[in-house]
Design goal:
Layout (H helix, E strand, L loop, with lengths): L7 H12 L9 H4 L2 E5 L3 E3 L8 H17 L2 E5 L5 H15 L3 H4 L9 E3 L14 E6 L13 H28 L6 H5 L6 E7 L10 E6 L5 E6 L5 E5 L2 E5 L6 E5 L1 H6 L9 E4 L6 E8 L6 E2 L11 E2 H15 L11
Parallel strand pairs: 1-10, 2-3
Antiparallel strand pairs: 3-11, 4-5, 5-6, 6-13, 7-12, 8-11, 8-13, 9-10, 9-12, 14-15
């Protein structure tokens, strides 16, 4: 193992031994779905939103809403975030993960947001071969919280507001399509309620059929904006098949979260996705999660409602309880009427 990596193999091996799994028993339903060859997600040029031609603006808006309904995932280009800023963010991210494991778990950066593997896993198919820094954006302005990582702080202080602007723009378009006021999302989600997650998926000596880079899941927020490298590995569920997503160096990936699915009364789809492990090379990505405050009430936009009213805090608490008890998230089905 590379010195800077967490002891993932040790934890994974202990899970297999302690649960008494056989090789056959490790087969996981999510992995048994067929995988379709890599495909291109819907690609939307956000430059169309600034067009002088009203028809082009409407066409761009319609494409965003259609992709949210039919795929739950899409890609955007001409999003307004410069290539230089994206590269700066990636360089700082790589430097952070190259720090030795012992230092990552003790450095105290931002009140210890470092995570690796899956501490709650009770079986190998609940385990993610990855490490991450989950960063509350309320803390990025606190210089004392960054220690020696001041250049990372500078990058995030540029990157996070840019991602907030893109996510709010897209979420506002999707909200207006449902009949909500133009400023509805802006009132619910601000920089203080959102999160940034820096992900690293180290090389995995096991085959991708045995270990997930990130286990199948849906996101719990309104909207997620993902900046990934060119390694690939992201797959999403489409028509009961896993679809491998081709990396596009010029695009950001957008996906609908559970809150938007509930808020839209299932008009938009929060789609299950995963990351497959890679035997040859590591993978990096940065995810921006557009979230409301925990006391925000999620109520369907029109009747008959599919879900009962719930707060974001209540939803997050239920997810945590499910993970503790059964090892994975159940999600919105718990809140269906």
């Amino acid at each position: 193992m590379i010195h800077s990596n967490p002891p993932l193999m040790h934890h994974y091996g202990a899970l297999v031994r302690n649960s008494g799994e056989t090789k056959q028993a490790k087969s996981f339903n999510h992995q048994n779905y067929p995988v379709v060859d890599a495909c291109d997600l819907p690609l939307i040029d956000l430059g169309g939103l600034k067009s002088c031609n009203e028809r082009e603006r409407k066409a761009c808006t319609a494409a965003i809403c259609k992709a949210a309904s039919e795929w739950g995932f899409f890609q955007v280009v001409n999003h307004g975030i410069s290539h230089d800023l994206l590269r700066k963010m990636r360089d700082e991210q790589v430097k952070l993960f190259e720090v030795p494991f012992e230092k990552k778990i003790t450095c105290g950066l931002l009140n210890n947001p470092y995570r690796w593997g899956t501490p709650t896993a009770t079986r190998s198919n609940h385990f993610s071969w990855s490490e991450a820094f989950h960063i509350p954006l309320t803390m990025i302005s606190e210089a004392a919280s960054w220690g020696e990582f001041s250049s990372l702080r500078e990058a995030i202080n540029e990157f996070a507001p840019a991602m907030l602007e893109v996510s709010r723009l897209l979420a506002s378009i999707l909200a207006q399509n449902l009949g909500y006021p133009k400023d509805a999302i802006e009132k619910l989600c601000d920089a203080g309620t959102c999160f940034l997650r820096l992900n690293h998926y180290p090389c995995c000596p096991k085959s991708k059929e045995e270990i997930f880079g990130l286990v199948p899941h849906t996101d719990s927020d309104f909207l997620t904006i993902l900046y990934q490298d060119e390694v690939g590995g992201l797959q999403l569920m489409k028509d009961s098949k896993w679809v491998a997503v081709k990396p596009n160096p010029d695009a950001l990936i957008v996906n609908i979260g559970d809150l938007f699915q509930a808020w839209s009364n299932d008009e938009y789809k929060s789609v299950e996705h995963k990351v497959v492990a890679n035997e040859k090379t590591g993978r990096y990505s940065v995810a921006y999660f557009l979230c409301p405050s925990y006391n925000t009430v999620i109520n369907s936009c029109k009747g008959p409602s599919v879900y009962r009213k719930f707060t974001f805090g209540e939803y997050r608490h239920q997810i945590q309880e499910d993970v503790k008890k059964i090892g994975h998230k159940i999600g919105l089905s718990r809140f269906q009427l």
